Amino acid sequence: MIKKIFSFKDRKSLANITLDNIQNKMYEIGFNKEFAEEIMIILEKKFNKYGEKQFQEWFSGLHYRIPEELKDELPAIKIYEKHSLLIEEQIKELEKETKLSWEIQTEELKNINDKARKVKLVIRDRLSGIALDLLN
Questions:
Q1: 114-135: b or e for each residue (b if 16 or more CB lie within 10 Å)?
Q2: So what's the pLDDT on residue 5?
Q3: What is the reported pTM?
Q4: Is residue 42 within 8 Å of residue 67, measured between CB atoms?
Q5: Do 57 and 4 form a contact (C-beta atoms < 8 A)?
Q6: CA-CA to 118 of 20 to 30 Å: which in 60, 71, 102, 111?
Q7: In this structure, are residues 43 and 70 in contact, taking their beta carbons and an 8 Å threshold?
Q8: In the chain, where are the structural domains located?
Q9: What number of other Cβ atoms are within 10 A of residue 107's Cβ?
């Protein structure tokens, strides 16, 4: 893996990537407390494993990828089943924002369960959007 060299400006904007700021952004975009907390558990584990600076670099570099902990179908399906209303609401928003169906947005995931596809779409899109917001 190529290590990115961060300038002072990059480090300054990375400072905005905190667990509190991420959680607040989740609430701003409409995640309810239970859903946000489920995602925060994953992010807190990463933070504790990596430390602050490495976590900030990892989070800022998600670029429409999903955290490894959600790569398997089963955890994603479980999240869908617990939070289906929120996921469907977010899917509708993403379809409006992109003017693309969720099926097209998850074309590369077409070999997995639809519930898992939807969860992965919502999480990867929204976490990437949060990272971009916090970097600006």
A1: ebbbbbbbbbbbbbbbbbeebe
A2: 46
A3: 0.87
A4: yes
A5: yes
A6: 60
A7: no
A8: 14-135
A9: 10
Tokens encoding 89: 């609401």
pLDDT in tens, 69-93: 888 999 999 999 999 999 999 999 9
pLDDT tens sequence across 33-44: 999 999 999 999
Q: What is the reported pLDDT for 43?
A: 96
Lookup result for tokens 């899917």: 91
Residue linked to tokens 């509190």: 20
Percentage above 90 pLDDT, the chain = 81
DSSP-assigned states of every residue in 37-104 = HHHHHHHHHHHHHH-HHHHHHHHHT-TT---GGG-SHHHHHHHHHHSHHHHHHHHHHHHHHHSS-HHH
Q: Which amino acid is at 41?
A: I
